[in-house]
C-alpha cells in the first residue's frame, strides 16, 4: 500500500494537471451536492491497539452532502469510516459523523479556497469490541477544484478533536 503522504502528493499533482487541462470554463455554481470522499486518518498517540501499540494511520471512506445557504456560506453533513489492523486479530475502527459551516465564495473560478467549522459524534471500537462514543469539534481548510460541469476535486486538511463525555483532562 502506498504511504499516505505519497498518495496525497500524487493526487495533488494529478488535480493540478486536470485543472490546467480543463482551463477556465464558464461554470454554474450548484446549490446542492452529494459526493463520496476518500482520505487518510492520522491517529494521535492517545488511541492505541488493545496490545498497547499506537494505531496505524489508514484510509478513510465516507460521503458528504451540502447546500449553499448564501453566496458565502454552505451547510454540510458528512460521515465516514476508518478501519485499521495491527495483526490478524487486532482490528480497530472509527466511525464519524458531523455537521459543518463552510465559508467559500460562490464564484466561477476553477479553484476556490474554503474554511470550515463544525461538530459531530464519533464511535471508536477496539479489537475487544468495546465501543467508546464521544462528541467531536472540527476545523478544516482547503481548495475546491472544478474539473468540469459535474466533476470536481476537494483537497482539505481537517482536524477532528475527540471530546469525551467525561474525564476532559
What does this structure look like?
Mean pLDDT is 78; it is low at 18-27. A hairpin with a 7-residue loop joins strand 4 and strand 5. Helix content is 11%, strand content 54%. The protein has 169 residues and is mainly β. The chain contains one helix and seven strands, in the order H-E-E-E-E-E-E-E. Strands 1-2-3-4-5-6-7 form a seven-stranded antiparallel beta sheet.
Q: What's the structural blueprint in terms of helices and strands?
A:
Layout: H1 4-22, E1 32-41, E2 58-68, E3 73-85, E4 91-103, E5 111-125, E6 131-146, E7 152-164
Antiparallel strand pairs: 1-2, 2-3, 3-4, 4-5, 5-6, 6-7
Could you give a short description of this structure?
By secondary structure, the protein is mainly beta.
- Euclidean distance between termini CA atoms: 36 Å
Q: What summary fits the major beta sheet? A: 7 strands, antiparallel
Could you list the spans in which at least 5 consecutive residues all have pLDDT below 50?
18-27
Q: Number of helical segments?
A: 1
Strand order of the largest sheet: 1-2-3-4-5-6-7
Cα-based radius of gyration, to the nearest Å: 18 Å
Short key terms for the protein model shown above:
mainly beta; 169 residues; 7-stranded antiparallel sheet
Amino acid at each position: 500500500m502506498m504511504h499516505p503522504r505519497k498518495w496525497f502528493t500524487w493526487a495533488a499533482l494529478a488535480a493540478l494537471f486536470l485543472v490546467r487541462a480543463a482551463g477556465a470554463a464558464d461554470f454554474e455554481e450548484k446549490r446542492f451536492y452529494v459526493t463520496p470522499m476518500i482520505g487518510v486518518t492520522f491517529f494521535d498517540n492517545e488511541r492505541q491497539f488493545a496490545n498497547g501499540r499506537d494505531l496505524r494511520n489508514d484510509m478513510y471512506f465516507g460521503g458528504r452532502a451540502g447546500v449553499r445557504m448564501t453566496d458565502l456560506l454552505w451547510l454540510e453533513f458528512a460521515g465516514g469510516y476508518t478501519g485499521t489492523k495491527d495483526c490478524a486479530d487486532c482490528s480497530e475502527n472509527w466511525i464519524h459523523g458531523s455537521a459543518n459551516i463552510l465559508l467559500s465564495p460562490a464564484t466561477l473560478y476553477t479553484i476556490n479556497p474554503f474554511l470550515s467549522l463544525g461538530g459531530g459524534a464519533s464511535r471508536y471500537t477496539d479489537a475487544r469490541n468495546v465501543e467508546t462514543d464521544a462528541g467531536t469539534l472540527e476545523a478544516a481548510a482547503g481548495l475546491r477544484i472544478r474539473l468540469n460541469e459535474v466533476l470536481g476535486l476537494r483537497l482539505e486538511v481537517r482536524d477532528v478533536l475527540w471530546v469525551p463525555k467525561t474525564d476532559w483532562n
